[in-house]
Hints:
Helix 3 packs across helix 11 and helix 6 runs parallel beside helix 8 (168-179). The chain is of the alpha/beta class. The chain has 15 helices and eight strands. Strands 1, 2, 3, 4, 5, 6, 7 and 8 form an eight-stranded mixed sheet that branches. It has a single domain (64-304), classed as Alpha-Beta Complex (2-enoyl-CoA Hydratase, Chain A, domain 1). Helix 9 links the parallel strand 5 (186-195) and strand 6. It is 49% helix and 15% strand. Residues 315-333 have low confidence and may be disordered.
Amino acid sequence: MKKEKILKQIDRLKSIAIAEGIDLSSEINKLRAMLELESDDFQKEKQMKEVWEIVQNSRKIERPKPQDFIKNFIEDFIELKGDRRFGNDNAVIGGIGYFDKYPVTVVGIQKGHTLNENIEYNFGSPHPEGYRKALRLSFQAEKFTRPILFFVDTPGAYPGIDSEERGMAEAIAENLYYLSDLKTPIISVITGEGGSGGALALGVSDILIMMQNAILSVISPEGCASILFKDSSKAAEASVSLKLTSFDLLNLGIVDKVIDEGPGLEVNPEIGYKNLSEQILTSLQYFTSLSSRELVEHRNQKIRKIGYYKDTTGYLKKGISNTRNFIYDLFKL
């Protein structure tokens, strides 16, 4: 019920109470309670709690990790290690196998279910050699015309000194560059956390799928709160502004499909597994039917649409050829 309608009813009941001498305080208090539920502050608080719950769900240690999806989906999986330049990164698992009848290359960013596993997998934060391993396997997939499946669950690329020394920025940039033009189908799934460039490096794809309780953002809520509010405890508030939930991203046109998890992957993973498996199979059937030229064109058009906006200021004229660059003109003024 809208606030204006409730306010009118309260005024009406007050008038009746005065005119008739009737005690209507109970009914008026109920309407006031409803009015509070309709207040902006209440709605903001409710939204903040809902979004923060999704963030926490995406990070639950009980939640299936990319290696669990690979084990569940891929038959005859053979792991392939190393980037042929530095070494092997345990945070990234990759190899070949079969999804249904399709031979595929599969890569996932691993997280652990125990402390020891998380230490082994660096808590899901890859080093540069992990991304270079993913790219090496992607080139191999293109050579043998195998579709690629990416499973992503990472708080972000590892930001340590050794990562910088081995060229983290270059490794991520190379993935973005080469994957955008790779002539084989790419399906990317965000299963839990999708943190910044660390997730984006495996997110350039023909279809980007998110599990219902997964998140994807340019920065963690804690990092955003530290920068904007100088207080990481305001992470829940920052998470709303980041628009990081699967449905936010679907509405923005960044994500292509959201997979229903039922009660949650950490509660009953079989529902999510089944729904995701059906979506991957449908995607494989479609994208393997396209020529390499059609595939790359589709991928490029998909990426170019992200961030598209419609001008409502009247500044831009109709027809791109008849107008100058909007940003260029702003800086020129």
